[in-house]
Specification:
Elements lengths: L2 H14 L2 H19 L1 H15 L3 H12 L3 H25 L5 H8 L4 H12 L1 H24 L11 H8 L8 H25 L1
Helix pairs in contact: 2-3, 2-5, 2-8, 3-5, 4-5, 5-8, 6-7, 8-9, 8-10, 9-10
Amino acid sequence: MSIGDTVQATVLSGSMLAALPLAALAGLVLGSVSGYFGGIVDNIIMRVLDCFMSIPTILLALAIMAALGQSMTNLVIALTVSYIPSFARIVRASVLTVVGNDYIEAARASGLNTARIIAKYVLPNAAGPIIVEATMNVASIIKSIAALSFIGLGIAPPTPEWGAMLSDGRPYMRTAWWLAVFPGVLLTIVVLATNLFGDGLRD
């Protein structure tokens, strides 16, 4: 494992975090629509998302990758779909605490359309928990990428990735331990750092 491979793997893990804003955006739309309208719309959206949430995140991503094939684009799709339900749940809960306030009723009485009320008044006042959830999910997405690559369903060789490096270095632990230890240490440091950042932001 060269320094260049390590740097490229670090950049790649960062690029895979494109799944985070995509999942957050989809969860933002679904959660805000569900929380704002309620009733049958809320029931339909939440029951569909409950079906996805009944499957562990990594298993859902694993199934999607097995169905779509091994590529960077498919990995982003798999992670995006896997993390949408958690974002939608957080957004819905935040929106439900906002929609009953007087300023929302005033906006409705003034004749503003639904899309503008949600974008201008509901989401900005419900953004706090959404930002924290996004930060806390960074580490989870990095771990999911590494786990999928470790079992051969993530980034295809020869593109370097920490999980794939761990898998490739495992047979050489007795003779060249650094091949597996260094990617593992870097993965641990990054995940720990993002978790601590998320905890600090939540506090």
